[in-house]
Amino acid sequence: MSGRLRVAAVVTRLEGGAGEMVLRGGRALDPAEYEVTIVAGSGGRLLREAGAAGLETVLVPALRAPIAPHADVLALAGLVRLLARRKFDVVHTNCAKAGTLGRLAARRTGAPRIVHTYHGFPFHEFQRVTRRATYVAVERALGRITDLSLCVGTGVAVEALRRRLVPPERVRTIGVAVDPVRVLTPQSRHDARRALRLPPDVPVVGTVGRLTYQKAPDDFVAALRALRPRGVVGVWVGGGELAGEARDLAERAGVRLVFTGDRADAVDLLPAFDVFAMSSRYEGLPLAVVEAMRCGIPVAATAVNAVGDVVVPGETGLLAPPGRPELLAAAVARLLDEPCEALRMARAAAARIAGRHDSAALAEALGDAYGGSRTPAAARVMHVE
Description:
Number of helices: 14
CATH class of the largest domain: Alpha Beta
CATH topology of the largest domain: Rossmann fold
Strand content: 15-25%
CATH architecture of the largest domain: 3-Layer(aba) Sandwich
Structural class: alpha/beta
Largest sheet: 8 strands, parallel
Number of strands: 14
Number of domains: 2
């Protein structure tokens, strides 16, 4: 093979954890070997960061997360035109909608290699049985045209195999790649709380993520309400379509919850937290959980998908069932009430992830998946209608 390997990294939205992983993967690969083009339906801050990193980005505006037949047909046609014209060596899809339309377009245009990353799944226990079964059937059909499936975390890989989404020999487990974080110290806590305009002596329970149904901001608010007698202040770092609804819910619940919106410096705010709490209904392996552990913040999270890879109950953090905010609140309360125990878990968590979850490991995994090792192109944004 001569020249750089041309990779189309297709993602529904260049936002959130999946968007971060796509961007970090593109930046991590050796530009002497790989020419990566990020194809997305939309994007904000991460789209600008991709351009600053010298990565080519292509927007397909019809590519959207909700099921919308007219838009989906337009998105598929746009992807087919793009892939047929550019003739990429590898088409690497991410997320449910981009995974469906991107893999179909890659198949139609004869892409030499199709790779898909499961950051999580479009199906979960909070759906109707018929809807969940439909999603599983679609993923099984797509698995037959996928050369390799990368699963973010062991729990995700196990679920993919248990559901027979992909043949066993085509499954690989990968980790998340987190950027360097500011370790918890008295100074970093002071700086983070000052940035959030929080007093130094209040208990703070925070989280990082998009305000979406998946992240369950309603359960986060309910957990804070249960913790109200302790004078807890909540912090939600991230934006999303449920921002307004979450604000109203917090106000009605009588809890103090600070909403920061999307922040490029999210990791610098982690030291402000006494406890990192994740209320998600379903997940892969969230970047924010690993970042909180690396920072030294004790973690209470919902027991979903691959979260158990890093949050080992009673050892590196505490877990609660999804959809049970009162139990999540109880886990948070224990970490607040038992600071020595919380510190022990935080130290064990930092030790567990030490030397793992970095960009070098992600680049190696992607190089193996692509059958070589390569990245960036020109920093320009194109639009495909």
